[in-house]
Design goal:
single chain; about 700 residues; alpha+beta; Hypothetical protein af1432; Beta-Lactamase; six-stranded antiparallel β-sheet; 15 strands
Length: about 700
């Protein structure tokens, strides 16, 4: 580590790097929900570089070192556990809320976030397209590629904002002269301190190096090199950036344009959902249009959430200190008034034997003798309390008139409270309804109820937990049996999931030590373990949606003719290649992506030409109405009379390999072609013999 970097990291708190407030807010809301999955939390955390770095650093600390080095957010969260993630979310929110940043710093943090998340999405797309086997790692590396700028903002709060405003997307040539270190270097050194078995640190460090410098480096380094430039591309440097991407991965400009076009609206939607407004035209500098009013609204919500957590913790402590149900009900009634301003409240416990909600008395309630006389049958469906209990949702009434259609028992409760309306809140613990909390509402309470809904739900959750542990046995015999059964099930699940997590982590370590020799077998074992784990914890990851940008009716024959003309001018002529076309002109225009088809054909034609360095013949043909099973396809054939494909290569034809064609060849052409064909809903096949050459067949859905 350089002296300048060491000095800077020693005087700031790298774990306290600012995060986007709305991301913190979303995380705080998620961790308090009992049904939140690890995949949902990973998705939220994976939107922000500062928060991701905090989580990664925690998971790779000595306390968790026995799990091995981890660079995947889903694995990180499994190792840390929900309690630790919740603690991190709360402490980060509190730290950031009370360390308010100047508007210029907030502007720059949001711009860095925008570029970082754009790079992450592009890196994942490139990883999938080029068959890099860890697209989530590529996403994380892209997210962290500007982490150093956040560190320098913390270390030089006055000087660095001025510099960054003038050089946000520049080459930062003066950065080291002014601050002693480049932002990519200090980020790489921080990431390196986590001791990951990954090239993430190198990918961040070398993102600004030349094409020649990264050409022979690890694939992740090349992916981030391209993704970081694409994320900040503009009209002045676009041609250079796309040319470098083409040279590293053989991707054409149109396909890269499609990729950029797909990420841009995604970023606009994400920014909008977080209350951030960014203008990023190709022809002008990026601008942050977020107003102080927008930020104040989010910060106010964050402050309210922090307050709610603090108050809920205090309520929880009080409730846990009492062991008698009547005392707990008294505390709940008191806090309903003190915290929310509700004039009165009562607690009803569910009795599964009689299928009814029964009122519970408290020590301090003047009407204590009246509540036990109220028993509400849950099968009646008329009372507001029953509706809240069965639907597991908060319910309110408008001001109740004496002759209204409101159920009689609800009118009685209103009279006991001396209020105009009611709020019924289900008491739910471990996904089980144990009763209902009911509060009286006067006119002022109706008006402020909307702003308190989230906090009321938190309060009710703590109340339910306290009530469920102390409810009289005669009210919950069957419920207790059900609870015991559910607890037993959870214990078994927990006991199974713990060794599965340990096995999974050690398999990961084993795969690192053995290299590629046993990669297939280890991967199969890992997949089966993951499948069992998913069944146990019921993760609900949404499948990746296929990007539909730039789809439309295309003339396949026209695409082929145009592409062949370009090849005849260059590669075919220099390699003494003869090209012939046998095209079926009855083939109509089909619905597909012109740019993706061009990339597929480009790769196949280049492969065919390079397989015949001394010259040869290539024939491209098309056929309409080819049936595979019940489905109709358009067929494209690319045939050459070269030496054929050796058996050893044919067995792994569509798997990335280390090409022997020179350093400009990454061995990815066929992998990319197959991936793109499948994205178009088609198939790609190959047949090859030494005496007849090679034929590639593309079948695209005949959708017109």
């Amino acid at each position: 580590m350089s002296n300048a970097a060491a000095a800077l990291l020693s005087r700031i708190d790298p774990s306290n790097i600012p995060a986007i407030p709305r991301v913190l807010l979303d995380l705080m809301n998620a961790v308090q929900r009992p049904d939140a999955s690890m995949s949902e939390l990973a998705k939220i955390i994976g939107q922000d570089a500062g928060l991701s770095s905090k989580i990664l650093a925690a998971a790779n600390s000595p306390f968790y070192r026995h799990f091995g080095e981890i660079s995947d957010l889903n694995r990180v969260l499994v190792v840390l556990g929900l309690s630790t993630v919740k603690t991190i979310a709360i402490t980060r929110a509190v730290q950031q809320f009370f360390n308010s940043l100047p508007q210029i710093q907030q502007n720059l943090i949001e711009l860095i976030w925008y570029r970082s998340l754009s790079c992450a999405h592009l890196a994942r797309n490139l990883a999938i397209l080029t068959a890099y086997d860890q697209p989530d790692e590529a996403y994380l590396a892209g997210l962290l590629h500007r982490l150093g700028q956040l560190i320098l903002l913390s270390g030089f709060p006055k000087e660095y904002p001025e510099f960054l405003t003038a050089h946000f997307d520049g080459q930062h040539n003066q950065e080291k002269d002014k601050f002693g270190v480049f932002h990519n270097e200090i980020a790489a050194q921080l990431i390196g301190s986590w001791k990951l078995q990954s090239f993430i640190a190198d990918a961040v460090r070398y993102q600004h190096h030349s094409l020649a410098a990264v050409a022979d480096s690890a694939k992740l380094v090349k992916i981030i090199h391209v993704a970081s430039q694409l994320s900040a591309v503009n009209s002045a440097n676009k041609a250079t950036v796309l040319a470098q991407a083409g040279e590293l991965f053989g991707l054409n400009q149109a396909l890269l344009d499609d990729m950029l076009a797909g990420v841009k609206p995604l970023m606009e939607r994400t920014a909008g959902s977080l209350g951030i407004s960014i203008s990023d035209p190709e022809t002008a500098a990026i601008k942050n249009l977020t107003t102080p009013v927008q930020r104040q609204a989010v910060n106010k919500l964050l402050g309210e959430n922090i307050k709610n957590f603090a108050l809920t913790a205090a309520v929880q402590q009080q409730l846990q200190a009492s062991s008698e149900l009547s005392s707990i009900v008294g505390i709940i009634q008191r806090d309903l008034q003190l915290i929310f301003g509700f004039p009165n409240g009562a607690v009803f416990i569910y009795n599964s034997d009689t299928e009814s909600l029964n009122g519970i008395s408290s020590n301090d309630d003047q009407q204590a003798n009246l509540w036990p006389t109220l028993t509400i049958n849950v099968n009646s469906g008329q009372s507001l309390l029953v509706q809240a209990f069965l639907e597991k949702q908060q319910k309110t009434t408008s001001p109740i008139e004496p002759d209204s259609s409101t159920s009689l028992v609800d009118q009685q409760i209103c009279r006991l409270f001396g209020t105009q309306g009611l709020l019924a809140i289900p008491l739910i613990t471990e996904h089980r309804s144990v009763g209902v909390l009911v509060a009286g509402l006067d006119q002022s309470a109706f008006e402020r109820l909307k702003n308190s809904a989230g906090f009321i739900a938190l309060f009710a959750h703590e109340a339910a937990a306290a009530v469920s542990t102390t409810a009289p046995a005669e009210l919950s015999v069957v419920a207790d049996l059900r609870s015991d059964y559910e607890l037993h099930t959870r214990k078994i699940s927990h006991e199974i999931s713990n060794p599965l997590n340990i096995i999974s982590n050690y398999l990961y370590l084993l795969s690192q030590r053995l290299g590629n020799d046993n990669a297939t077998e280890i991967k199969l074992i890992q997949e089966e373990i993951d499948r069992v784990g998913e069944i146990l914890i019921r993760l609900t990851d949404a499948p990746n949606s296929v990007n539909k940008e730039n789809y439309g009716l295309i003339d396949i024959n026209g695409v082929i003719v145009d592409l062949v003309k370009l090849f005849q001018i260059g590669l075919f002529k220099s390699n003494n290649i003869n090209i012939s076309l046998t095209l079926d002109y009855s083939l109509p225009e089909i619905s597909s992506s012109r740019n993706k088809l061009k990339q597929i054909l480009t790769n196949l034609l280049k492969n065919a030409s390079e397989a015949m360095p001394s010259g040869g013949n290539i024939c491209v043909s098309t056929k309409d109405r080819i049936y595979l099973g019940k489905h109709c396809y358009a067929e494209i054939q690319v045939q050459d009379n070269g030496p054929g494909i050796p058996d050893a290569i044919a067995k792994q034809l569509f798997v990335p390999v280390n090409s022997n064609k020179g350093k400009n060849h990454q061995g990815l052409g066929l992998t990319i072609s197959k991936n793109l064909t499948e994205e178009l809903g088609g198939t790609l096949s190959c047949s090859s013999t030494a005496d007849k050459g090679t034929i590639f067949k593309i079948f695209l859905p005949r959708t017109i």
